[in-house]
């Protein structure tokens, strides 16, 4: 957020579904399964549709942007991924699944 002068909440929103998609590719077991069941109940949809429904709901509040719309480049995505691994250990230690720098780069790249 700081590099592109984007509010903290919006910058989190910009990557939220990329992170959730990555978590789902790792498997929807444990706490993620519990979250998906809860959200499906609230949203009135099946578990497999939770993130599509949630994206649609969020888009009504704030239309999503590609990271390139904020100014991010592929080189920035690589640098950000490396920086996350070095400087955001608290966040990475609390990740639902272990993520490598390459995983984080992939998340950013998919969102470009």
Question: Explain this structure to me?
Answer:
It is a single chain. The protein is built from seven helices and no strands. It is mainly alpha-helical and 112 residues long. It is globular and about 40 Å long. The model has no long low-confidence stretch (mean pLDDT 92).
Question: What is this structure's SSE topology?
Answer:
Elements: H1 8-26, H2 30-43, H3 50-61, H4 67-70, H5 74-87, H6 89-93, H7 101-111
Helix pairs in contact: 1-7, 5-7
Summarize it:
The protein has helices at 8-26, 30-43, 50-61, 67-70, 74-87, 89-93, 101-111.
Q: What oligomerization state is this entry in?
A: single chain
Q: What string, H for helix and E for strand, traces the elements in order?
A: HHHHHHH
Taking all residues together, what is the mean pLDDT?
92
Shape call: globular
State the major sheet: none
Low-confidence segments, ≥5 residues, pLDDT <50?
Answer: none
Helix-residue proportion: over 70%
Number of helices: 7
Q: What Rg do the Cα atoms give?
A: 15 Å
Note the beta-strand portion: under 5%
Tell me how many strands there are. 0
Report, as a whole number of angstroms, the end-to-end distance: 15 Å
Structural class: mainly alpha
């Amino acid at each position: 957020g700081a590099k592109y002068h984007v509010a903290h909440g919006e910058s989190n929103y910009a990557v939220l579904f990329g992170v959730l998609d990555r978590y789902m590719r790792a498997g929807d077991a444990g706490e993620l399964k519990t979250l998906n069941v809860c959200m499906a109940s609230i949203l009135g949809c099946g578990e497999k549709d939770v993130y599509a429904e949630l994206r649609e709901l969020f888009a009504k509040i704030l239309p999503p942007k590609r990271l390139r719309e904020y100014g991010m480049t592929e080189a920035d995505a690589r640098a950000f991924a490396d920086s996350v691994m070095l400087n955001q250990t608290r966040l990475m230690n609390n990740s639902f699944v272990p993520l490598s720098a390459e995983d984080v780069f992939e998340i950013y790249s998919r969102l470009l």
